[in-house]
Design a protein that fits this description.
Elements lengths: L2 H33 L9 E3 L5 E3 L7 E7 L6 H14 L3 H4 L2 E7 L7 H8 L7 E3 L3 H10 L4 E3 L11 E3 L3 E4 L5 E5 L5 H11 L1
Parallel strand pairs: 3-4, 4-5
Antiparallel strand pairs: 1-2, 3-8, 6-7, 8-9
Helix pairs in contact: 2-6
The structure holds nickel (II) ion.
Amino acid sequence: MSRIFFVVFAAALMVGVVFLSRNVFNGDTARVSSVGKIDIGGPFNLIDQNGKAVTDQDFKGKYMLIYFGYTFCPDVCPTTLSTMGDALNMLTPEQMAKVVPIFITIDPERDTPELLASYVHNFHEKMLGLTGPLAEIKKVAKAYKVYFGKANEDDPDGNYTMDHGSTTYFMGPDGTYAAHFSHGISSQIMAKKMAEFL
Ligand code: NI
């Protein structure tokens, strides 16, 4: 290899490395900024299990641990709500004071405030059960990207089951997305992840 060829080759290599590292760097920057803009959540205007009107603004400054489901759900909802309750009990009292656990029904037709009151306290004494007009529930579920719908026609007794998304959301003090938990995650992992923020 001649000396001049070596110098040209080395220079070309350096330009290549600089170009490559700039692109990798820009790529990383783009990825990080997109993670910071996860478009989950939004305002709500619902009624709690005591019949009191509540909005997302009432929880400003607190973290919200939010799950959508229905009290007649045979399996997924009770499992997830138990996980939420157990995870909350693993936090210190100071950490727990910053979190509001919220169950939003996707079956307002049957889930009255009275029914929610007798249901949510099985999982945690701090848990709120929210219901409201179907149109408002649809709007909130859409903002949280939670699908729901009737799974079957009513049987002769008027019974039916619902299909629904099973992700639990952890929202920050400003109401924006902080983390989410898939169905089946352990209460230990949920508690550990929440504690990172608290
Ligand atoms: Ni369910």
